[in-house]
Amino acid sequence: MGYSGTGKTTLITRLIPELKKRGLRVGTVKHDVHGFEIDKPGKDSWRHKDAGASMVLISSPYQMAMVRDVDHDSKLGELKTYFSGVDIILAEGFKNSGAPKLEVFREEVQKEPVCRNDEQLLGLITDSLTNLDVPHFPTEDIHGIADFLVAFFELAPSQESGLMNAAS
After folding, report:
1. Distance separating alpha carbons of residues 52 and 104, to the nearest angstrom
2. Residues 37-43: what's their mean pLDDT?
3. What is the CA angle 73-8-164, rounded to 5?
4. What is the spatial distance between Cα 129 and Cα 111, in angstroms, rounded to a whole number?
5. Domains (ranges, CATH) in the chain?
6. Cα dist from 62 to 21, 59, 80, whole Å
7. Which of 16-20, 22-26, 116-120 shows the lowest per-residue confidence on average (mean pLDDT)?
8. Are strands 26-30 and 55-59 parallel, antiparallel or unpaired?
9. Which is more confidently placed, 167 or 42?
10. Cα–Cα distance between 61 and 108 in angstroms, integer?
């Protein structure tokens, strides 16, 4: 959680390797209310979708991707079904998901934390002083944030997936 430009993506890209060092398999999901394209016009998979396929699965020995038509903006809990073989899912976006949240707060970007009154706020990642009654982590304390997530979700390698809106 946090406004654009606060460092949400940076936080997630720094948390992933820290959690992986602990033996955890990490999944991520990014919410984009504006829509997106992951394939380039002219590529075979794009041509399949452009021709009218409702779902296209792209597979190689190294990775897989799916493009699928949907009839609504999926809720975070619905997307969890697409994740298998991960220990934690970090989500960016989904401000109103009802999932546990960490907020990245920077005074130079926003005046007050977005989650000030959100009961699902677990902690604040900030270098500013605030009076919110949740744990605070400096923006550079990736190890401490990872420790907190592991303890809060009681994570260990190969457990069922936790669902965390880690910086929406």
Report:
1. 40
2. 81
3. 60
4. 12
5. 8-33+73-164 (3.40.50.300), 37-72 (no CATH)
6. 21, 8, 22
7. 116-120
8. unpaired
9. 42
10. 45
30 Cα distance to chain centroid: 6
75-131: pLDDT as tens digits: 888 888 888 889 999 988 887 788 899 999 988 887 888 888 889 999 999 988 888
pTM equals: 0.82
Residue type, 88: I
Rounded to the nearest 10 degrees, what angle do helices 8-21 and 142-152 cross at?
A: 70
Q: How far is CA 58 from CA 11, 44, 61, 79, 84, in A?
A: 29, 10, 11, 19, 17
Please write the tens of the pLDDT for every residue from 128-163. 888 889 999 999 999 999 999 999 999 987 644 455
Q: Output the CA torsion sign for 152, 154, 156, 162.
A: negative
* Other residues' Cβ atoms within 10 Å of the Cβ of residue 19: 20
